Amino acid sequence: MATILVVEDRPINRRFLVTLLQERGHRLLQASDGEEALKVARAENPDVAIMEILSPNMDACQFAARLGAEPAMAQPRLVFRAPNYIEAEARAVANAFGAFFLVRPANPEELLSAVSAALAEPRQGTARPGPESVEGYLRVIAGKLQNHAESLDRLNAQLDRRVAERDARLEIVRAALDQEIKKRLWAEQELTQSNHRLKDQVMHDGLTGLYNRRYLEESLAREESRARRSGRSLGIMMIDIDDFKRFNDTLGHAAGDAVLRAMGQYLLMAARGEDIVCRYGGEEFVLVMSQAPHNSILHRAESLRQGVQQLGIEYEGRLVGPITVSIGIGIFPDHGNSVEAVLRAADAAMYEAKELGRNRVVIGGYKPAPEQPAPAIS
Predict the structure, then answer these.
(1) Chain centroid, CA 38 distance in Å
(2) By 3-state DSSP, what share of the chain in percent is helix, strand and coil, each rounded to 5?
(3) Which of 84, 109, 129 is the last residue of a domain?
(4) Alpha-carbon distance 345 to 215, whole Å?
(5) What is the rounded CA–CA span in Å between residue 258 and residue 264?
(6) How many other C-beta atoms can be found within 10 angstroms of the C-beta atom of residue 144?
(7) Alpha-carbon gap, residue 94 to 82, rounded angstroms
(8) Per-residue confidence of the chain (378 residues) as pLDDT tens digits?
(9) How far is CA 232 from CA 92, 216, 289, 330, 349, in A?
């Protein structure tokens, strides 16, 4: 078993060397720099000292020279270590001091081989080179280190340029990606708006702006289900403009369109928020009143009939009218087992109002047959 001094300022490297050599049965001493190593060497007289040539505070040359200045002390065998980019110069320094040399990083086998070779040498005082030759070697090593540092600086500068170029390219890609995302969002927004416009066109009458017959048919099933759940009545008014053909024949279709638009605006203004107002076709309109008592439905119908007569509709600078309407009322479930049946009852009542002289309100008289009960609440 030999006593080995490891001089290393980096703890992780020092632990590696100490552990490796301890596993081979050696006694290990440790120091983090040259000054500390000198104290340990004087006190413990190690067989081998392993040290970095460029150790902090005191390099390996100074350490060897200081040991050589103490002839009464048995000199340890020296193992110098250095990085590969100064190998030639560091090896020359090691030879000058009679030291063994290892390129760092070295694998464990190389390290153990160097230690074994050092221990095989007789332990005796070694002639040390003069200061001039040591200074020469150190100047060469310092020059190598300077060149290495400059090379590192150039590599760092190149790396910085490449990083800047990469960042610039990434910024361009990021900007392009942001633009593409915005385009996609705009396209999706435009598509959504287009779908809303299309749905609006499909569900609304282009002339009056009211809901159309298709929307009414889709809404009636929903309103019937709501009426069944609540147990409250549902009123449907079928409204027809009296003698509408006369406006088209005497004043032209443009005048008839003006009448239809005015009628649509009036019905929309007079409707409650929960009412459904539709242009059913031609000069016919439908108003659906949910959860309204019978007298309220009748009162609303009469109010609408009277209000239409007060409309001042202008066409090409002159008033068109007066306008009157015939209104038929159907009430669910009084006048039918389904809203479709109630709608037919309202339509029949509206024709009855026309036969009775127009400009009036008639409530449907159809009663559901006993053998046709209303569907169960869903």
Answers:
(1) 63
(2) 55, 20, 25
(3) 129
(4) 20
(5) 10
(6) 18
(7) 10
(8) 899 999 998 898 889 999 999 999 999 999 998 889 999 999 999 999 999 888 777 888 888 888 888 877 888 999 999 888 888 888 888 888 888 999 988 788 988 999 999 899 887 554 455 445 556 656 656 665 566 556 657 767 777 787 888 888 888 888 888 888 888 887 787 776 766 666 666 788 989 999 999 999 889 989 999 999 988 889 999 999 999 988 888 888 888 899 999 999 999 999 988 899 999 989 999 999 988 888 899 999 999 999 999 888 888 777 877 899 999 999 999 999 999 999 999 999 999 999 999 999 999 864 444 434 444 433
(9) 109, 20, 11, 14, 22
Say how far apart CA 45 and CA 18 lie, in whole Å.
Answer: 17
Whether 226 and 322 map to the same domain: the answer is yes
Instruction: Tell the residue number behind the tokens 């590599």, with chain if given.
Output: 155
Q: Do residues 6 and 20 touch, judged by C-beta distance below 8 A?
A: no
Local structure of residue 130 (DSSP, 8 states): P
- Taking Cα atoms as reference points, which of 301, 335, 366 lies closest to residue 224? 335
Whether 162 maps to a domain, the answer reads no
Q: How many residues make up the chain in this entry?
A: 378
Does a structural domain hold residue 300? yes
Beta pairing partners, 82:
103
Contact 42, 49 (CB under 8 A): no
Asked if residue 42 is part of any domain, the answer here is yes
Can you read off the two tokens belonging to residue 361? 């309100």
What range does the domain containing 117 cover?
3-129
Q: Is the pTM of this model over 0.70?
A: no
The helix/strand/coil state of 344 is helix
Q: What is the CATH number of the domain that holds 64?
A: 3.40.50.2300
Q: How far apart are CA 301 and CA 121, in angstroms?
A: 124
Does 203 map to a domain? Answer: no
Final residue of a structural domain among 108, 129, 150: 129
Q: Which two tokens stand for residue 107?
A: 């694998």
User: CB–CB of 129/72 below 8 Å?
Assistant: no
Are both 125 and 223 inside the same structural domain? no
Domain count of the fold of the chain: 2
pLDDT digits (tens, 9 = 90+) for 174-196: 888 888 888 888 778 777 676 66
Using CA atoms, how far apart are residues 127 and 302, in angstroms rounded to an integer? 131
